[in-house]
């Protein structure tokens, strides 16, 4: 069944979009990532114009994050206090990111920088996660209890605050900085930023894996909502028709994913996410390195 | 616009004998409505040659061109720099039609002479021209790339031998509009030729518009972007909440 999308101005298969939303939704619920870093390239692939894919992707992230957070709230796996602190940084970062994006577009080359951002960040994060989670699994096999709390520079900063749900007593500066840098990247790359946020929370802030997913989703809702309105207002590239189809698949997927996530061990979740991140990274890197079959591309004036 | 003026001028300047044969043409539809189920559309063009004199000996040719609204397109070219493929040179191609379909009754260069093609800008290559650009020395390659990409997307096409001619009088053809066409006023040019010379021509219009819900959404997004953005958010939030509630309900029972 084909449907014509009013803003994207193309005709696409309803079930294809529904399935795409569902697949990304499952991953989103399992790993606490918005799924934007998967959704956006997949939408390019089925012929949605890039500008529309990026903007509509953020709108879909709002829906699947809301759905995911509600599931996590029920199980009390959201550190709301940490969420608000991250959000303060996130919104400032998103605002800066949008300015930076506009500037990059004015000097051209925005596509390249976005792709490079993806390759570099996905590569670093994916590799680190892969190493860490493999080591964690090996450690568990040898049945020695992992050392949880490590004291590093994060604990030496002022303005300390108690985050009871996470069991942390740390300065608010690192979470705000994490939120800020993720916000900047999120706005440039047109994603929620969960795939950067989740590892940062685990490895920099030292939050327990259990609350990381819910808290990340909570924060992503607001950053993605902000970005959606910005895109709709500045570029008129949010396609409600496309968004609804992706959302219908996505929210169902997110619910399933959140329940699947409960059944598998934290280390396994991490290694799966790591493999996914590395896979997407390699795919994009290959695209940059191999000579494209069509060297020319079309763009609108302006 | 230029082309319209040009053809008007040619029409006025043409001597009386050139109009011995006239075109009477019709179309299956003069408006194409883009609604939620739009998957492209086929336009049927047909017509007859009206003449008061006997049929001339030289064979009759028909060239039909459907052209979409013109826009400026930036064509970028990638080059390998520091080991990766990067967009480097860019050329603005002015007046590139969003859609351009040619149907002819025989081989293109046989039906229409080179001079006529150049004067009336009929073929795709004549229509899509780049403005001289100081930054690149092979601007033509960019125009060729634009044509190549649009041909692949089904937006530009040349279909030779696709106009059916009956007894040198009746002609008909059909042109496929793909689902990725843009809105606007499309022109349908019909040229009647003898020995490559245009002896008569005819212009009609097709309006391609979004209708119903598609129209409403598009207008809202462009005229009230803030409200549209907030509406998108509200819908997203509602669906997120609804799915979560529904699932809790389902899992409890």
TrEMBL record, chain A:
Keywords of the record: Cell membrane, Membrane, Transmembrane, Transmembrane helix
Chief site of localization: membrane
Transmembrane segments: 12-38, 44-71, 83-104, 110-131, 152-170, 176-204, 211-233, 239-258, 270-290
InterPro entries: TM_pro_TauE-like, TSUP/Inactive_protease-like
Subcellular location, record wording: Cell membrane; Membrane
Membrane topology (UniProt): Multi-pass membrane protein
Residues in the signal sequence: none
Coiled coil (residue ranges): none
Example of a GO cellular component annotation carried by this entry: plasma membrane
Family: Belongs to the 4-toluene sulfonate uptake permease (TSUP) (TC 2.A.102) family.
The protein, known as: Probable membrane transporter protein
Organism this protein belongs to: Maritimibacter harenae
TrEMBL record, chain B:
The name this protein goes by in its record: Transmembrane protein (Alph_Pro_TM)
Transmembrane intervals: 226-251
Domain of life of the organism encoding this protein: Bacteria
InterPro entries associated with the record: CHP02186-rel_TM
Signal peptide: 1-18
Keyword Transmembrane helix applies: yes
Alphabetical keyword list: Membrane, Signal, Transmembrane, Transmembrane helix
């Amino acid at each position: 069944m084909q449907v014509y999308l009013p803003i994207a101005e193309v005709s696409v298969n309803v079930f294809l979009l529904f399935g795409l939303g569902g697949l990304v939704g499952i991953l989103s619920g399992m790993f606490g990532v918005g799924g934007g870093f998967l959704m956006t390239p997949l939408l390019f692939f089925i012929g949605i114009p890039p500008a529309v894919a990026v903007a509509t992707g953020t709108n879909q992230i709002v829906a699947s994050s809301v759905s995911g957070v509600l599931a996590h709230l029920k199980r009390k796996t959201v550190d709301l206090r940490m969420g608000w602190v991250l959000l303060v940084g996130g919104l400032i970062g998103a605002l800066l990111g949008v300015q930076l994006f506009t500037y990059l577009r004015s000097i051209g080359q925005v596509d390249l920088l976005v792709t490079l951002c993806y390759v570099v960040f996905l590569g670093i994060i994916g590799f680190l996660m892969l190493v860490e989670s493999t080591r964690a699994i090996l450690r568990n096999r040898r049945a020695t209890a992992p050392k949880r709390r490590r004291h590093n520079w994060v604990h030496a900063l002022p303005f300390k605050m108690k985050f009871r749900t996470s069991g942390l007593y740390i300065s608010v500066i690192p979470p705000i900085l994490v939120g800020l840098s993720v916000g900047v990247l999120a706005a440039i790359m047109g994603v929620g930023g969960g795939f950067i946020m989740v590892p940062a929370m685990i490895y920099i802030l030292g939050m327990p894996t259990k609350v990381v997913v819910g808290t990340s989703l909570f924060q992503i809702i607001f950053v993605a909502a902000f970005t959606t309105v910005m895109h709709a207002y500045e570029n008129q590239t949010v396609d409600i028709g496309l968004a609804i189809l992706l959302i219908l698949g996505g929210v169902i997927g997110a619910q399933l994913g959140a329940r699947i996530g409960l059944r598998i061990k934290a280390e396994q979740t991490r290694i799966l996410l790591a493999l996914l991140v590395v896979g997407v990274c390699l795919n994009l890197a290959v695209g940059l390195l191999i000579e494209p079959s069509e060297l020319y591309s079309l763009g609108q004036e302006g | 616009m230029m082309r319209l003026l040009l053809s008007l001028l040619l029409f006025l300047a043409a001597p009386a004998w050139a109009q011995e044969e006239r075109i009477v043409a019709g179309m299956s539809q003069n408006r194409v409505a883009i609604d939620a189920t739009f998957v492209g559309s086929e336009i049927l063009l047909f017509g007859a040659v009206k003449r008061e004199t006997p049929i001339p000996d030289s064979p009759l040719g028909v060239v039909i061109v459907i052209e979409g609204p013109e826009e400026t397109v930036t064509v970028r070219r990638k080059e390998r720099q520091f080991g990766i493929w990067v967009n480097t040179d860019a050329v603005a191609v002015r007046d590139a039609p969003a859609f351009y379909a040619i149907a002819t009754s025989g081989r293109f260069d046989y039906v229409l002479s080179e001079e006529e093609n150049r004067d009336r800008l009929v073929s795709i290559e004549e229509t899509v021209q780049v403005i001289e650009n100081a930054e690149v020395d092979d601007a033509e390659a960019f125009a060729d790339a634009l044509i190549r990409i649009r041909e692949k997307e089904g937006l530009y096409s040349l279909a030779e031998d696709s106009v059916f001619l009956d007894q040198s009088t009746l002609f008909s053809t059909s042109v496929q509009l793909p689902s990725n066409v843009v809105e606007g006023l499309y022109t349908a040019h019909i040229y009647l030729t003898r020995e490559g010379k245009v002896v008569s021509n005819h212009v009609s219009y097709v309006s391609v518009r979004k209708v119903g819900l598609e129209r409403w959404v598009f207008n809202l997004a462009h005229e009230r972007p803030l409200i549209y953005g907030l509406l998108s958010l509200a819908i997203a939030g509602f669906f997120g909440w609804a799915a979560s509630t529904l699932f809790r309900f389902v899992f409890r029972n």
